[in-house]
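Bumping my old thread because nobody answered last time. Still need a sequence for this structure:
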């Protein structure tokens, strides 16, 4: 489902493509051939065969699957599948009255279209089922658009059975990026991959159209198990079955994480232990392909090998709170891999039946599969006699609501730490229930119960906070986190990606270690941190990553080394760079419908000294989305380097006409006017940037420097003082403050 995400890209660095999913749909009549792995030449390539080929042997699994959220992920709109009220119901939102009605057994809405005028639009598909259902409308060029008014499918006594707008607080008109006819509500671009099986986007960049196809309209067997044609050969003992490895049974992936594994509870401690360690993450990564905040890099997903086709988001401040709790819509994977349960060997299917998707037990029962009831489901543990506080999930999996009505639980499985909430300003489970109470009140009670503040498993909040706030002990906390191999990899990778090499030269050692870490998340993060170093040094540190075993790491290495001249590359490595670069360009081609990918393409060409190709890519980004701020910024910067500042100014002013609230555009134009020596007007734009985005400390710093240069030292000091209230330990701001005070 399309959620309330205001996706505005960062201007810093080279942008990898945002998840570009795929297009409107035609059911495949023939098996779809896929290159999953190298196969014997005497066997046909693996292909998708459809659910009906599975049901005769897997009767029970099919029974459980029917009616599940996977089964109902996407359906043709008809009397049986449409849940919303289309009996001339109306909803007025954003000054537009939308009417829902039927015509000849078909379903329609009368609402504002792409031109802002009221028109009738037919519902072609339903999207999701509970707690809300969205509807897809077909547009020319193979596009399907997700209508932004959804049906609350919950029971009436739960507050459901009515229409509601997904973005009630946004001033949305037909030109707004969140309007249902715009790119961010495009099914092809945003959501197809996860709601149907084996989606092929088939975007044509020449005419900007789609011919998207699927093997099955919903999330069916092969969405998780991979193409099953070889499995059928094995099962039927058809010609060629003897060439199939009996251990795999011809399956592209075996989801066997629970096989032969048993959990036992130590009666003395009440704690549980898995007798056989989890041998791989292939089940978890199969689920994570959709149940994670990630970027689709390629269309040929390798079952169970997420990072070969996707890039996973780390614990960025826009997505997670500093202690790793969910903030934006991040789904489950990024939280789960932070958990002690993940470290202990728990996998998704330990708690969820994988076909019905239901929990394996009701209430606390799902937790008591592994946790001794006489230790954990008692007042002595939770101090809440038969109340919400006695439910394991209310303390350890606090919920957050997305899409107005969709409550989702945090899979971090953390211990409530209200003392940390009081110190760091993060949510805590206690005051979520005890409205009107403070985190300090909760911390005092917990300290009285246990005699101390609970530490819990996740202990990186203070380190990440120190890094982000420029604290004086940031280096020590960072090193302690990186050296603690028991802490979640995703937290350590986040710290690496955010490290400031200016804190201490010894951090370079930590970066080198990350680039050679066994976990690809660490290697990926290490590459992102390389941008602080000059090209030649980057090459010496990262050239090996061009041959990394994981594709997402290889292509990021190509990105980070793009500005290294061929003359500085050994001949043997030029081939490796060329191959990794081709993989990267192939990824951008797959995401050619994404303006972020076009900006990334422009950046790559610019770094390689190919300005014509770079300019073409930036222009394409703006044709795809005239509101895409990074395209204006990076295009103007390219023009600056080509000594075409007059054209660059026109580009920035065009961007501001569409996005006047964008601090990056205000800042960029201010800097350009400084170069023109138009200081009075430059100060206007630099001031607006600092005021529009006060959390971007660089804007305040540059504005203060400009004020000082203009002889307005008193105002410069005031700007610095205000910025230091947000980041009191920022070295650049403190140095500027000292200089200004010395001059006075």
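Sorry it took so long. Here it is:
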């Amino acid at each position: 489902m399309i959620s309330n995400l205001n996706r505005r890209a960062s201007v810093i660095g080279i942008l990898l493509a945002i998840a570009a999913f795929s297009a409107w749909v035609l059911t495949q009549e023939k098996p779809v051939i896929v290159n999953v792995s190298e196969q014997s030449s005497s066997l046909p390539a693996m292909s998708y065969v459809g659910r009906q080929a599975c049901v005769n042997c897997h009767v029970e699994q099919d029974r459980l699957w029917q009616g599940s959220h996977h089964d109902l992920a996407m359906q043709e709109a008809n009397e049986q599948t449409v849940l919303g009220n289309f009996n001339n119901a109306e909803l007025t939102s954003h000054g537009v009255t939308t009417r829902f009605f039927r015509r000849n057994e078909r379903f329609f809405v009368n609402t504002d279209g792409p031109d802002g005028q009221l028109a009738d639009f037919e519902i072609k598909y339903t999207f999701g089922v509970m707690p809300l259902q969205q509807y897809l409308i077909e547009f020319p060029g193979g596009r399907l658009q997700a209508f932004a008014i959804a049906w609350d499918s919950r029971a009436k006594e739960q507050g459901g059975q009515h229409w509601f707008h997904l973005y009630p607080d946004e001033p949305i008109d037909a030109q707004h990026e969140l309007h249902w006819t715009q790119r961010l509500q495009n099914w092809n671009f945003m959501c197809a991959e996860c709601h149907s099986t084996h989606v092929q986007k088939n975007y044509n960049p020449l005419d900007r159209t789609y011919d998207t196809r699927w093997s099955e309209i919903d999330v069916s067997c092969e969405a998780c198990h991979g193409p099953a044609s070889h499995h059928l050969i094995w099962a039927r003992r058809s010609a060629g079955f003897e060439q199939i490895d009996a251990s795999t049974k011809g399956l592209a992936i075996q989801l066997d994480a629970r096989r032969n594994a048993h959990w036992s509870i130590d009666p003395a401690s009440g704690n549980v232990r898995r007798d056989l360690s989890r041998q791989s993450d292939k089940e978890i990564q199969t689920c994570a392909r959709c149940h994670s905040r990630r970027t689709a890099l390629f269309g040929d997903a390798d079952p169970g090998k997420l990072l070969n086709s996707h890039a996973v988001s780390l614990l960025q401040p826009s997505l997670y709170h500093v202690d790793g709790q969910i903030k934006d819509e991040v789904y489950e994977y990024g939280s789960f891999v932070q958990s002690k349960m993940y470290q202990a060997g728990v996998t998704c299917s330990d708690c969820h039946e994988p076909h019905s998707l239901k929990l394996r037990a009701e209430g606390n029962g799902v937790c008591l599969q592994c946790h001794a009831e006489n230790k954990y489901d008692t007042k002595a543990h939770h101090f809440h006699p038969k109340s919400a506080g006695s439910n394991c999930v209310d303390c350890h999996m606090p919920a957050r609501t997305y899409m107005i009505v969709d409550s989702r639980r945090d899979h971090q499985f953390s211990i409530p730490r209200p003392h940390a909430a009081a110190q760091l300003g993060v949510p805590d489970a206690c005051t979520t229930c005890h409205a009107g109470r403070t985190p300090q009140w909760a911390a005092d009670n917990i300290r009285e119960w246990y005699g101390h503040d609970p530490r819990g498993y996740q202990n990186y909040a203070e380190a990440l906070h120190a890094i982000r706030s420029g604290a004086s002990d940031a280096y020590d906390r960072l090193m302690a986190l990186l050296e603690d191999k028991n802490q979640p990899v995703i937290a350590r990778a986040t710290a690496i990606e955010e490290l400031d090499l200016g804190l201490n030269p010894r951090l370079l050692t930590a970066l080198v270690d990350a680039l050679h870490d066994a976990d690809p998340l660490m290697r990926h993060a290490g590459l992102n941190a390389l941008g602080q170093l000059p090209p030649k040094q980057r090459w010496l540190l990262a050239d090996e990553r061009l041959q990394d075993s994981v594709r997402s790491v290889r292509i990021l290495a190509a990105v980070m080394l793009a500005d290294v001249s061929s003359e500085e590359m050994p001949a043997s490595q030029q081939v490796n760079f060329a191959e990794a670069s081709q993989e990267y360009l192939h990824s951008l081609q797959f995401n050619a419908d994404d303006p972020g990918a076009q900006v990334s393409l422009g950046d790559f060409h610019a770094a390689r000294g190919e300005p014509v190709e770079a300019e073409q890519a930036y222009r394409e980004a703006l044709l795809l989305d005239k509101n895409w701020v990074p395209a204006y910024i990076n295009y103007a910067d390219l023009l600056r380097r080509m000594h075409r500042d007059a054209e660059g100014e026109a580009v920035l002013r065009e961007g501001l006409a569409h996005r006047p609230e964008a601090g990056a555009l205000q800042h960029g134009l201010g800097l350009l006017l400084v170069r023109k020596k138009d200081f009075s007007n430059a100060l206007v734009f630099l001031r607006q940037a600092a005021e529009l985005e006060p959390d971007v400390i660089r804007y305040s710093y540059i504005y203060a420097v400009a004020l000082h240069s203009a002889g307005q030292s008193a105002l410069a000091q005031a700007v610095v003082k205000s910025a230091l209230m947000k980041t009191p330990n920022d070295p650049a701001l403190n140095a500027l403050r000292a200089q200004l005070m010395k001059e006075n």
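The longest helix spans residues 571-590. Let me know if any region looks off to you.
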